[in-house]
Every structure is written in structure tokens, then in C-alpha cells.
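Translate sequence into C-alpha cells.
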Amino acid sequence: MLAYPILVTALTCYLLGNLNGSVFASLLHNDDVRRHGSGNAGLTNFIRNYGAKSSLMVIAVDGGKAILACLTARLIFAPYGYALEGTVLGGLCVMLGHDFPALLGFKGGKGILSGVFVALLIDWRIALLILAVFLAAYLLTQYVSLGSVLAAFAFGVGFVIFHHDNPLVLAGGLIMSLLTLYMHRGNISRLLKGQERKTNLLGKGKKQQ
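Result follows.
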């Protein structure tokens, strides 16, 4: 009975995830963010190259697609009594689309920005937890990657704390947490070796100086 809603939700939300804010915003500069810096189509690499002022479009697109995906999934599954589970499925699929976008050659971002908005739609307490962890780590060290890795870990912890009684929701949350940690495996390696770069999230960017 749920096979069709699951398929529609998964495909719709995955395709929404393909809409990459960093790539779109860099096109407004007649450029492609993936040609610069780390080559990643994420917010951090965008800010390093184009500056914080230009990042509002990235936040709007990546946040907007996550919200739209989760709300669409919730509407699809609500009549079946699985609104929360549907929201989690939508969140997972939009993050997969963001990380591995078929329309962009499977070269996307790492999912932290979209993940914050996904968490907000699922449970505001988890969103607050990961934002607090990220900000604390970043402000203390200036390492965006460290904040992102700890926030991804806190994402999973939040689901364990607040949704341990719902196996489907818990599983979805843990998968998203592990997915984000996997996307940051290179950063983790560089952090452990002391080779990671610090980032000024309020900077002008190389191409704006």
C-alpha cells in the first residue's frame, strides 16, 4: 500500500536535492564553484571563494529545497498516519540528492546546511542541538569542518535522545548522521593530521577581494 507513496516521495525529494545552491549562486558570477578551492559544491567552499554576502542565495536554495522536500513528504504520508516518518524519508532523500546529484554529475555538497533545515522540520530540538554544537566548535577553533563533523554526530545523538521509541524515525536519523560523517571523511582525516584549513565565515572571499 505504501510502495507508491515511498517511490514518489523518494524520487521527488531526491530531484529537489539536485538543486544545488552553491552551483546556482556561482552561476550568477558566471562561474562554477566546483572549479575552485576544494571543488566541493557546499557553503564553506562558496564563502571561501565568493564571500559571505553572496552566500544568502546558497542558504535560500539549499534551505528551501530541504523545507519543500520535508513538507511534501509529510503531506504525502500524513493520510496514512506516518507524517513524521514521511518527513524523515523526505529529509534523507533530499540529502542524498544534495550529496550525490545525478543532474550535476554526482558532485554535490556535504549536507550540513540542508541537514539543519531537515532537522528543523523533523524536530526543532535536534536542530537547536546541532546548531549549538556547530557554533560552539566553530567559534572556539575557526574550523568549519570540525563544527560540521561534531554537528553531524550530534544529529544522530539527537535522534537517539528524542526518538528512540520510533524505530523508523531513529533509523532514518542515524542514516543521515552517518551519511554526513561519510561526506566529511576527508575533513576528518585532515583534522587528525593537523592539515585542515580554518575559515572565516564572514570573509569577503578570494574573488571578492
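Note: Residues 47 and 95 are 20 Å apart (CA to CA).
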